[in-house]
Amino acid sequence: MATVEDVRWLGSSLERSYEVFVRGRLKFRVGSIVYVAFSLDETEMGFGFPKEERAALVASAPDTFRLPRESEMRFNWVESSLAALDPVEACELVVDAWRLCVPKKVSAAYDLRHPGGPGPDRPRVRLEAEHRQTLARLADLSQDFDAVVAASRDTNADDEHDPEGATIAFERSQVQALVRQAREHLAEIEAAMERVDAGTFGTCEDCGQPIGAGRLDARPVARTCISCAGKPRGRRS
């Protein structure tokens, strides 16, 4: 299921594109042309699509896509519920809509940098989703920690002589460790997102060779290839 945040970064990263709010609705523009627009509650996405092809698109997946209302049929436009799209598909639709608004040379330049279409941008989509999940987990852990601290105050337990006090102390240390791990992982995700922006994502920081796709699938925050990761730290270049 896609969300606005899965595609919002494209609105400001695609060449000549920028985002605006019109009557509270988020829209992506190239010049004065709107090529993507979201509903007020950000659950629906309308996007540019070739007029001669949109009927076939809707017919191919009527539960996912629909034509605009009658008064807007003259526009090159299709609508969809974001919940019916996966994040990668939503990104592809945004990029395809953007292509309709820019010169062919701009679109061609994008293709040279992204030979698989929006595919090379997929790491950011995944990292942003993982970033949101880690923030949510960190918030839950912080609540757990506050609850353990409150429990320790209520019992006024003596860790040395009260078995319950020892249990609370253990729980507190466990939650603290999980909070620390979540914060470290959050920092790793943010560093990986910076590498995506810099164009160095997927390149080993030790040997400069590409990091294998399998390793990135399993660990998208990886900084080194599997060979360098297996070397003792002191022997890495």
TrEMBL record:
Domain Zinc finger DksA/TraR C4-type: 199-231
GO molecular-function terms, A-Z: zinc ion binding
Residue ranges covered by zinc fingers (dksA C4-type): 204-228
Pfam families on file: YjbR, zf-dskA_traR
Gene3D superfamilies: DksA, coiled-coil domain
Key word Mitochondrion present: no
Keyword line: Metal-binding, Zinc, Zinc-finger
The protein's name in its UniProt record: RNA polymerase-binding protein DksA
